[in-house]
Each structure stands twice: as structure tokens, then as C-alpha cells.
Amino acid sequence: MKFLKNKLTVTIIVLSVAFLGLIIFTVSKDTKGLEGSAGDALNPLQKIGYTVSSGTKNFVDFFLNFSDVKEENKEITKENKELQSELTQKSDLEAENERLRALLDFKEQRDNYNYIATNIMGFSGGGIIDGYIVDKGQDDGIEKGMVVIAANGLVGKVSSVGSNWSIIQAIINENIKVGVMVESTRESGILEGYTDNSNNNLVKVTNLPIDSTIKPGDKIITSGVGELYPKEIQVGEVISVEEDRVSVMKTAIVKPTVDFNKLEELFIVAPKDTRVIKYD
Fold first, then answer.
1. Which positions ≥6 away from 124 have C-beta within 8 Å?
2. How many CA atoms lie within 13 A of 156 on its CB side?
């Protein structure tokens, strides 16, 4: 047993010396080659070590700077909100300027009227179909029957008036009748309120000639017939046309130019001579 142990020890020593000699011989013969081979062998390990080291460093840097990053994100979010607010305000101002510009054009074309600006205080009854309550009345020169407009078209007329309030009946109410015409063909009809199957507040033009060439996309304006409404106020755009062979006439369904759910400024059109309310 002792003999075997000694033999194993001698074998290990011999192999170690031989391996060491082989290394020394290889280095002395081709140092450059060894360096290249060793480099190739070590490079993957070095790369792994570098990647781990780099990743660890980045993680540590992120952890140490996390509070700064969080603060920067807060600042960026705040700046974005401020920019969005500024853009919204700019958009609102542009929309308001557009409305006022349209009203100014209307006033310049019809300078024989006074235009009384009013604010909506609420609804008369259940909603817009029943009318708007505004903050101007007889003390401001308003009388029953006067026409009401918005910057982009016809709203309706004054149906009731008090000393400092009035009720505006909108054209989407079925009780309101307005003399209108097709802008392109000049064909006349009667406008009245209409609600479709989807409960949309629209209007329709009846009593159009059976041979009328009216079509979707045509503009409807006031005709001035009956002297109840000023002539050529924008009313709406035709979205469909129906033919009634029994009554021998056509009916046009019209989308109003005024969005009655988003009214902001209302203007009551007051003839300068109000002894008799009469419109050209």
C-alpha cells in the first residue's frame, strides 16, 4: 500500500514537471502565438466579466440617480400639462375669434339692426327643445317675436319676455315655423323641428316642389318670406331628401349649422325701428 502511494506521488511530480516544461518550451518557441491563443481563450471570459461589470455599474448608477430621474419626469409631466393647457386656450381663442368674425360679417351685411348679446341662464322646461332662458329682457329693448342668432346661424325667436329675462324658442322645436329656401336653387319651403329615430335634434324643410333638384349637401337659408326672419341667415345643410307622391312635394332633412348643445353666445336681432317688428 505504501509502495502504491509513493508510485502515485512520483507520477504526479513527473507529470507536473513535464507539463511545466511543455509550457516553457511553447512560450520560448512562439510567444506571440501563445499570446494570441491565450487571448482568444480569455477574451470570452473578459467579455463576460466586462458585461457583468458594466451592467452592475449601470444598475448602481440608475439606483443612485433614481430620485433625480423621478424629479425630471415630474418636471417633464408638468411642462406637458402646461403646454396642453396653452394649446387648449389657443384653440378656444381661435374658435371664439372665428365665431365673432362670422357675427361681424353678418352685422356688416345687415347694419339696419341692433344686436343684443345675451347669456344663457338655463332651460325653460325639460331642455333645449323647450327653449333657453337668457339674461336680457324688456329693459334691454327686447320684445316678443324678435329673431335670435348665433355666430354661425339661426337659433330661433323670442317667445316670452320679462323685465330682465327672455325665453328663446329654438328652431328644433316642432312649434316653430320658418320660411326658408335652398341657397343654390332659390326654391322655397317651410322649416320646422324634427327628431329622427336616433333622437337627434334636426329640422326638416317641407312644401318643396316635387320636381325640385335639391340634394344632400345643399345649404338652407332663411327666405325672408312673411317678414318674420331676416333674409339669408344660414340654417343648415341637407342630409337627405324624401319624395311624397301623395302630397306631390319633397321634404328635406337638414342638420342645423348651430350646435344647440354647445351654444355660447346668443344675439337677439332687434330692428332699429321696433314699433313694428319687421325684418328685411
1. 130, 131, 132, 133, 160, 167
2. 28
pLDDT tens column, 162-205 = 999 999 999 999 888 999 999 999 999 999 999 888 888 999 99
Written as nine digits, the cell of 176 is 316653430
pLDDT of 114 reads 85
CA distances from 236 to 21, 39, 122, 211, 253 (A): 104, 83, 24, 21, 10
Q: Which three cell numbers stand for residue 231?
A: 333674409
With a CB cutoff of 8 Å and minimum separation 6, the contacts of 176 are: 156, 157, 169, 170, 191, 192, 193
Residue 196 forms part of a structural domain: yes
The domain tally of the chain equals: 1
- The reply to whether 138 falls in a domain is yes
Residue 141 is predicted with a pLDDT of 92
CATH number of 252's domain:
2.40.10.350
> Would you call 224 helix, strand, or coil by DSSP?
coil
Q: Is 102 domain-assigned?
A: no
With cell 440617480, the residue in question is 65
Q: Domain range spanning residue 252?
A: 113-271
